[in-house]
Amino acid sequence: MEFSNISNIIKDGNEAYKLLEKSLPTVKKVLEYLKHRRLKIAIFGAGGTGKTTLGKVLSGRLDLSNLPLYSYQESLKIEKYEFKDDVSGSIVVVPGQPRRKVEMDNCLKSVEKGEFDLVIHVVSLGYHSFNHLSYQRIYPEQGGITVDQFLEQYTRDHRQKEIEVLKKSLQRSVKMASRKKIAMITLITKEDLWWQQRDSINAHYKDGEYNDLIKNIEDDRGTDKFTHEYCSVSLIRKNFISGNNEILLLTTSGYEDIVKAERLSCLLKTIGELCDIT
Question: Helical H runs in the chain?
Fold first, then answer.
């Protein structure tokens, strides 16, 4: 994975790039570790939360300074990203749709066998991308639903799906992992959509049912065998749209390149700390 994939998040000469340079030594250390030493990461989460994008970013296959324009495409199978330059580490992205249960179950068994150093659960406050032609088709029984009504119900329903992934799948497998110590990150993506409400939104994960499930894992394994951290990031900055390109929610004003870069740096630092990269 090339360091330029991170430093090019913003263009050379930009003031944001100059500010980002202050955190580069720690970030570079993490990236060099990923490049030269074995590290296996499993990425779980409901469909449309940004798992594939994360896998491509961490493996150096997606340049955040020059993102292609694309719509959400459902993953049909397990995605594996080997690091570039003959790197021994790897990243596994698990399909999140319920009908891909066989693929998820296989990866959960791998977690139980202790095959992964780090498990990342990707959530997005219910802003799960979808490829329906129109948002109106998701709740057809509510004919004439407004965008605001749709967003309220859709995000509520999908926040519950995030909890179900943890409660019905990840919680048990992480508890049973044969590794002496297993690390986990809950990564809250699409920060650019909810940045202005971040204090109350973070509380949804850290003070509610979600965190109770995390604490249950910790109580079961003990803090010497389980470590967990919350991180939030916006891997891409994009309006929340339907498969028919209907704009449902605009990106938050004030979420600038420097914020995006700093949050990504924070994620990489957290990976370094949890995986004992010194």
Answer: 4-7, 15-20, 24-36, 51-58, 101-112, 147-165, 171-176, 191-194, 198-206, 209-221, 257-274
Look at residues 44, 70, 66 and name the one whose alpha carbon lies nearest to residue 55: 44
Return d(Cα 70, Cα 261) in angstroms, integer.
21
Tally of CB atoms within 10 A around 22: 10
Q: How far apart are CA 26 and CA 23, in angstroms?
A: 6
Average pLDDT of every residue of the chain: 79
DSSP codes, 50-118 = SHHHHHHHHTT---TTSPPP-------S-EEEEPTTT---EEEE---SGGGHHHHHHHHHHHHTT--SE
Q: What is the pLDDT of residues 13-63, one digit of tens each?
A: 344 445 445 545 555 565 566 565 567 889 999 989 998 888 877 776 555
* Helix, strand, or coil (residue 42): strand
Q: Output the CA torsion sign for 236, 272, 49, 199.
A: negative
| Ramachandran area for residue 173 (φ above 0: left; ψ -120 to 50: alpha; else beta) | alpha
If we measure between CA atoms, which residue out of 176, 179, 188, 184 comes closest to residue 273? 184
User: Are β-strands 118-123 and 90-93 bridged in parallel, bridged antiparallel, or unpaired?
Assistant: unpaired
**Parallel/antiparallel/unpaired status of strands 240-241 and 247-249:** antiparallel
**What is the SS3 assignment for 244?**
coil
Burial class (CB in 10 A: 0-12, 13-18, 19+), 73: exposed
